[in-house]
Specification:
The protein is α/β, with parallel strands linked by helices. It has two domains: 3-68, no CATH class; 77-339, 3-Layer(aba) Sandwich (Rossmann fold). Helices cover 21% and strands 26% of the residues. It is built from six helices and 19 strands. Strands 7, 8, 9, 11, 13, 14, 15 and 16 form an eight-stranded mixed sheet that branches. Strand 2 (36-43) and strand 3 form a beta hairpin. Helix 3 (171-182) packs parallel to helix 6 (323-334) and helix 4 runs parallel beside helix 5. The N and C termini lie far apart (50 Å). InterPro entries: Peptidase_S8/S53_dom, Peptidase_S8/S53_dom_sf, Peptidase_S8_subtilisin-like. It holds the Pfam family Peptidase_S8.
Length: 340
């Protein structure tokens, strides 16, 4: 297995593994320690297990040889974090502006839709959204809803890796700004699934989607669009069926799902974007695509994704390129006020 494609600290186990069973599995891995820890989470019907003092990919080899149904947790790479072509997921670069942009987009002092209509809600699965003056709203009518402040068991359970010089933690804030620009009346429901290095464990994103399907209520807790700026290629050892299974309940509710096509300039399909029930968005215009954007018949739409201007945490602004921003803009296009 290619270790770069898997979480170094998480695996999943089929079936129900109580603490006593974990003790037996730990004995297989390390007689002196407790390398496996039950997190209390499930994803796609599998138990999510944290690994201590042992690499998850190596642990899977040992456990499988002993007959345990173990699987290393695949990773989805976020839309714009790694250098283009370096990884099999998405990747591109960003540049912080040293001063405020020459033409700052207008702030939204009044974002309520016309009478009789309600705000649309865009669920944003990403790094989480941080404060920025351009995203401010009134407390009684917030622009931003943090899922981890609700009854959200997956909230905040991401692998915290700070990548040194790669200051990518503002990715979700940037996307929220683009959604607000495209849909001034929208609200963003922020589901924090991605770490600061731009990596998403499959069990985390599946857990988020399962929670979102249960959270959705057409009247009390609406969700009108889902935006996902991450993806991975399928493989023989790790098919994408578990992800599709988690997505389908949302698709069956009629909720539009949007995902970035990726930044590797290739025609090979990337998931979740390539699912039939998801709109894959590349960077470009019409039939033209940016030199970094993935392309092909599975890419459904193209939106601007080159040197896009957006907000960053701490009141900063940046220009950033990648299909993540194309997807966020298209998600905003779909977010229109609804009849109450």
């Amino acid at each position: 297995m290619d270790s770069e494609r898997y979480s170094p600290d998480t695996l999943t186990l089929g079936g129900d593994y109580p603490a006593a069973s974990l003790d037996r599995l730990n004995d297989l891995l390390n007689d002196a320690g407790r390398p496996l820890v039950h997190t209390g989470r499930t994803a796609g019907g599998r138990q999510v297990i944290a690994v201590r003092d042992y690499d998850a990919v190596q642990a899977v080899d040992v456990l499988r040889a002993a007959g345990a149904e173990a699987r290393a947790d695949p990773q989805y790479l976020g839309g714009t974090f790694q250098l283009a072509g370096r990884y099999w997921g998405h990747g591109f670069s960003w540049a912080e502006l040293t001063a405020a942009p020459p033409v700052e987009p207008p702030k939204f002092s009044e974002t309520a839709p016309p009478e009789g209509l309600r705000r649309p809600v865009v669920a944003l699965l990403d790094t989480g959204v941080q404060e920025h003056s351009w995203l401010e709203s009134t407390p009684d009518d917030p622009f931003l809803i943090h899922a981890e402040q609700l009854d959200s068991p997956f909230g905040g359970q991401v692998l915290e890796i700070h990548a040194g010089e790669v200051a990518a933690a503002g990715h979700g804030t940037f996307l929220a700004g683009l959604i607000r620009l495209a849909a001034p009346s929208a609200q963003v429901l922020s589901l924090r699934v991605m770490n600061d290095e731009g990596k998403v464990n499959e069990s985390t994103v599946i857990g988020a989607l399962e929670w979102l399907a249960g959270y959705h209520d057409p009247r009390e807790r609406p969700v009108d669009v889902v935006c996902m700026a991450f993806g991975r290629a399928p493989s023989d050892t790790d098919p994408v069926d578990p992800l599709l299974k988690a997505i389908m309940p949302l698709a069956e509710k009629g909720i539009p799902l949007v995902a970035s096509a990726g930044n590797d300039h290739q025609s090979a399909e990337i998931y979740p974007a390539a699912f039939d029930v998801v709109t894959a968005v590349g960077a470009g215009f019409g039939r033209y695509h940016a030199e970094f954007s993935n392309y092909g018949p599975w890419v459904d739409r193209y939106r601007d994704g080159v040197d896009v201007l957006g907000p960053m945490p701490g009141g900063k602004w940046a220009k950033w390129s990648g299909t993540s921003f194309s997807a966020a803009s298209f998600a905003g296009d779909l977010a229109r006020p609804h009849v109450r």
